Amino acid sequence: MKTTWVAAFALALTTCGAPSPGGGPALGGPAVVSDPTLDEMDALVRKKFYSEAVLEKVQWPKLVAAARSKLGKVRTPEERVSVLQDLLAGLHTSHTEYLPRTEPKYWELASIFEEIFAEVPAQCPEKEKRLPSLPIAWQDIGVAWKRIEGRWFVGGVFEGGPAAKAGLLLGDEVVEADAKPFEPVAAFARRQDQTVELTYRRTRGGALAKVRVVPRTSQPAKSLQEAMRASARIVEGNGARLAYVHVWSWTGDTMQQELESAIARLNKEKPSGYILDIRDGWGGAAPDYMDIFHKDVPVLVSRNREGQEFRVDAKIRVPAVVLINGGSRSGKETMAYGIKKHALAKLVGERTAGAMVAGSAHCMPDGALLYLATASVQVDGEVLEGRGVAPDVEVPFDIRYAAGRDAQLDAAMRALSAQATTSLQGGPK
C-alpha cells in the first residue's frame, strides 16, 4: 500500500444537519442533532487519532457535544462547514482538516488517495456512494488557489494550462465568474471546453478587469505531475544559466521519477545553478528522495559512431537554492530539514508549515474525506510538528496583488547568479 504525508480533510455538503426524531430537545436543553458524518468522525477520532493525551487535553467529548448543539442552529451549508471545521481545528494538529467538495483541495486529495481507497476498503466504505467516480476528475484551469481572508487568489499558475494561456498571474484576486461570486470549483464544474469569463483585480485597490478562460477536465494528481514537468526550464540572469523546477506535489515514487527526469533534461543544458521550488502544493516526499543531491553517483556519457551524445545524470551537482514557505508541508519539510542539516543547498523564503505527522484518509457518509493524524513523526529525533524548518535566508513574500512578481524566486536567482559570476571570474567558491 502506498503511503503519503499529505495533509487535508474534506467534507462535501449535501444537507444541513436535521433535528433528531422525537420533536426536538428536552425542555430547556440544548439542541441535539443527528448527523452521520459527525458521528463517524467522532468515532474515527476516538479510535485512530494519534494522541490520547491530546484528546484528553482538549476535552474532545465536550468539543463534539458543543458541535452537535451548534449544528442544531445552522441555517446554511456554509455554516455547517464552519461548525465541523472548527471542531477539528480544536485538535490543534496538522493533517486534520475539513474541506467541502466546493474547495479545490478536496479534489486533489481524493485524486492522490484514490489508489489507497481501492486497496483498503475500510477507509472508504460504500465507495460508490461516498466518492466521485474513479479516476477522480474535475474541471480546472491550472491554478494553485489560495484563500486568504475570505478571498481567492492565484497562488501559482501551472505552465501551459488554461490560466497561463489566458494571462492570469501570480497574486491576481479572482472576484467573479460569469458575473457570480467566484468559487474555484463551482465556477468551472461541467464547463469543460466552454468559455468562462473571470473578473479579477491585479493591484491592491485597483480596477477590475476581465479575462476569458476555457476549463479542461483533468485528473488532479496527474495535473500536478504535468505541472512539475512543464515548470522545468533554464532561466538566465547576470550571465548565469540556472535550472528551475517546481515540485507541486511530492507524493510518491511517480513524482520523484518525474523530478529526476526533469533534472536529467536540465543537466543537458549545463546549468551553473539549481532552483528547486518546493513551496505550496502537497508533501509526500520520502527521506531517500534527498538522493538527488548525491554527487558521488557517476555521470554516464555515451556517444555513438555518428557523434550523438547521451548523458545519464539525474543529480544536482551545482550550487542550489531550495525555495520554501508556509505552504511547504509534511514530506517537503523532511527534505528541507535534511538539506539544511547537511548543507546540500541554501534554503530561501519563509519557515515551513510545521505540519509533520502521519495520517490516513477516510470517506465520510456525505461524500467527505477525513484526513486524520494517526501517528507522530520525528526527523532525526526532532519533532517538526508545530515548529517547521527555518530558511537560511529569510525573504517574506505576500502573494496578494504580486502581478506575477516573485520576491523569493528573485532572491534565489540573485544569490545563484552572484555565486556563478564569482566562480567564472576565478574568485572564491
From TrEMBL:
Which InterPro entries does the entry link to? Answer: ClpP/crotonase-like_dom_sf (IPR029045), PDZ (IPR001478), PDZ_sf (IPR036034), Tail-specific_protease (IPR005151)
PROSITE patterns linked to this entry: PDZ (PS50106)
Q: Name one Pfam family in it.
A: Peptidase_S41
The PDZ domain covers 153-204
Show the SMART domains listed in the entry.
Answer: TSPc
SUPFAM superfamilies reported in the protein's UniProt record: ClpP/crotonase, PDZ domain-like
Designated name of the protein:
S41 family peptidase
